[in-house]
Amino acid sequence: MKLHTFLLASAAALALSGTARAADPELLVFDWAGFEVEGLFADYKAKHGDAPTYTFYGDDDEAFQKVASGFKADVAHPCSQMVSKYRDAGLIEPWDVSRIPAFDTLAPKFLASPIFKDDQGVWYIPTDWGATAVAYNTEEVPAEDVATLQVFTNPKYAGRTSLPDSSDDVWALAYLATGVTDWTTISDEQFAAAAAWLREAHQNVAAYWADPAEMSQLMASGAVQVAWSWNDGVVALQGENYPVGFQREATEGSSSFFCGFVNLKDGPGSEDKAYDFINSWLRPEAAPALLEAIGYGHTSTAAMDLISDEELVSIGLNEISAPVLAQTPNDPALRERQLAEFEKIKAGF
């Protein structure tokens, strides 16, 4: 899949959200819409003659609720801050890393939490990472306007902004905009300030996007000029020659995230094939496929050795000098509080 087909592919996958794309019946992958990229499971297909069966979701909380309600799959692809919920609910089991030869090539920073790795085992295999920052129409929005995250509350852009329909991402934005760069220690005062800022930002929102394809379509249509966006939607728009910039160095900063795979308990398929799938994902050749199709970085240092600095700049994943709020695991009680407050804000309360 090429970058210029990403919008259509993601939109089609999202339309299939909750349904299965049938292939090998012995492995069911519960994944983000758009991640069924052949370059990621190429070794799996070469070995078994077919792709895994995929079923899709567009939101981490939606995916967790479905699994917690009894949906059965073999592996799922949550972002890091969700892993504690899967563990606490008893929905996952440790991976046997002796069966994952490339495990030792994972950058240590992606496993630096007892939520992911403890004396009971390795609960999470990080695979991909990206950035969340300000996407903007470079022909309509002056660079000085996006030099600050206050662009989202600027009356000039009333009805012209878009935020993700994702509690984690909007709170990362709100914390940054109110001077917080670490969400692992949030006071009641910081929460209240961020919530007040989000309510103000809500007044400018034309739409909350549920998928990078939706965000990209909103911008391409001209309905939205400024969005809080993952880098993949921006990369797709740039591939279509839309005048879209990606501001990661606003005064207050930007955010980063990483995602990976959990081994779901009592999966209906083959455990051996789950390991074949992960091993295909972690081979070095998966990194160029991931970058080309989705615009994300890979967690394996050996895989990232195949990516040039110029390519990282082109997809907005280069090193920056501005503050970065890393979306690492935080207090589950805080996440629930954020989620509830976000629903109120979207409803206008």
TrEMBL record:
GO terms for biological process: polyamine transport. Transmembrane segments: none annotated. PANTHER family: SPERMIDINE/PUTRESCINE-BINDING PERIPLASMIC PROTEIN (PTHR30222), SPERMIDINE_PUTRESCINE-BINDING PERIPLASMIC PROTEIN (PTHR30222:SF17). SUPFAM superfamilies: Periplasmic binding protein-like II. One of its GO terms (molecular function) is polyamine binding. Keywords: Periplasm, Signal, Transport. One of its GO terms (cellular component) is periplasmic space. This is Polyamine ABC transporter substrate-binding protein. It is found in: Periplasm. Its main location: periplasm. Residues 1-22 form the signal peptide.
